[in-house]
């Protein structure tokens, strides 16, 4: 898998991405994003995790 690099405010970028998914696919997509993110959550400082991805 290729690495992904986020430029700018990482927390804001992730929040905006998940919010866009919610607008497009509904609130259930937030839960899908949380589940997908959980595999990487130990690699991201909690201060950079947006509230929308916290359980």
Describe the structure.
The chain is mostly helical. It has one domain. 49% of the residues lie in helices and 0% in strands. The protein has 2 helices and no strands. The chain has helices spanning 10-25, 28-38. Helix 1 (10-25) packs across helix 2. The N and C termini lie far apart (26 Å). The model has no long low-confidence stretch (mean pLDDT 92).
Give the arrangement of secondary structure elements.
Blueprint: H1 10-25, H2 28-38
Briefly characterize the structure:
By secondary structure, the chain is mainly alpha-helical. The protein is built from 2 helices and no strands.
Strand segment tally: 0
Helix content: 40-55%
Shape call:
globular
Number of domains: 1
| Sequence of secondary-structure elements | HH
Structural class: mainly alpha
Task: Please give the alpha-carbon distance between the first and last residues.
Answer: 26 Å
Number of helices: 2
Strand percentage, roughly?
under 5%
**Major sheet details:** none
- Rounded to an integer in angstroms, the radius of gyration calculated over CA atoms is 11 Å
- Overall pLDDT confidence: 92
The low-pLDDT segments are: none
Task: Throw out a few tags for this protein.
49% helix; 55 residues; mainly alpha; single chain; globular
